[in-house]
Write a structure and sequence with these properties.
mainly alpha, 3-stranded mixed beta sheet, two-stranded antiparallel ribbon, 5 strands, 7% strand, elongated
């Protein structure tokens, strides 16, 4: 029995993309409902968009479940070489990094082998597990038994991983989660605070893996952030955002951690690990001075303004 035709507004039968003969120009595989190739993962190019070949929206085939019909990519993460098998369409839709990698006209070793290795210092199993949860649910939740300080470290770990993979929405989510965790400590746990050693770890992770606001601290502005030399180029940790005022260039998670540390500075300075973090990062020291000069304490109703 033949497939039923969908009805358009005028009652004429309309072919869905899965019924059409649209094929990829690179490998001749089918173009799916998300505007990507089922074979090589390539996204539609400008010319194809101009010809009207666009992803389907708001129809029965462009729902969440359709993404699970796309091919998977094998991703090997961290020193333990944990393997994940994630759907290409979801990676492409949520991460510009993977979109560039899988949609490039140059078929590199990752696309050819169907395997990507992530093995930099920020590619940790704990953070990547949260990233996987975010990919499929647009949210993530730390393990319940981890504890307050561990949760804060995890949020920052997710943040720097999202920075590496160009996932701005995930960065914003991790920032909000850390802010709310700090607010919970300040507002509802009288006398409690993060361990000074935890704050030192937060600062070290952030200042080593997020963009500097200072043009003079940048070498070439870019680093090969890809999983291998064939991968896409992404901003390195010293990449500088230019063309905007310095205050606006400052990373908001750095600012949050520096302001929290400044609000507890007397206690923090008694911890050798915290003082080592200050000595090791001139930019952290600078942000501490700025935060102290501006009053130090964080008003926890200012989430949108931080």
């Amino acid at each position: 029995m033949g497939a039923k035709k969908k009805k358009g507004g005028g009652g004429m039968p309309v072919k869905s993309r899965s019924e059409s003969s649209l094929r990829c120009r690179q490998c001749d595989s089918r173009i799916n409902d998300f505007g990507g190739c089922d074979g090589c993962g390539r996204a539609l190019d400008t010319e194809e968009l101009a010809l009207g070949v666009r992803p389907a929206v708001n129809n029965s085939e462009s729902n969440f479940a359709v993404r699970f019909t796309s091919p998977t990519l094998r991703i090997i993460v961290g020193p333990a070489k944990t393997e994940y098998y994630l759907h290409k369409e979801i990676l492409i839709s949520k991460s510009p990094y993977f979109s560039a990698l899988l949609s490039s006209s140059f078929v590199g070793i990752e696309v050819a082998s169907g395997t990507v290795t992530l093995n930099t210092g920020v590619d940790t199993d704990d953070a990547f597990q949260m990233l996987v949860e975010y990919l499929y649910h647009s949210n993530y939740n730390p393990p319940g038994e981890a504890g307050r300080d561990s949760d804060c470290l995890l949020h920052v770990g997710v943040y720097v991983l999202a920075e590496r993979l160009c996932m701005e929405d995930l960065k914003s989510l991790a920032f909000r989660k850390l802010f709310k965790e700090l607010a919970r400590v300040e507002l509802y746990m009288s006398g409690a605070q993060l361990l000074s050693s935890t704050v030192a770890q937060l600062a070290e992770t952030l200042y080593e893996n997020t963009p500097s606001p200072h043009p003079q601290s940048c070498d070439d502005g870019m680093s090969t952030g890809g999983p291998s030399q064939e991968g896409p180029v992404s901003p390195g940790p010293n990449h500088v955002k230019t063309g905007v005022p310095e205050d606006e260039r400052r990373d908001k998670m750095r600012t949050l951690v520096a302001r929290y540390a400044a609000s507890k500075l007397v206690q923090m300075t008694k911890d050798p690990s915290f003082m080592a973090a200050v000595r090791n990062s001139g930019e952290f020291a600078e942000d501490l001075i700025l935060a102290t000069a501006r009053g130090g304490d964080i008003e926890f109703d200012e989430l949108e303004r931080l």
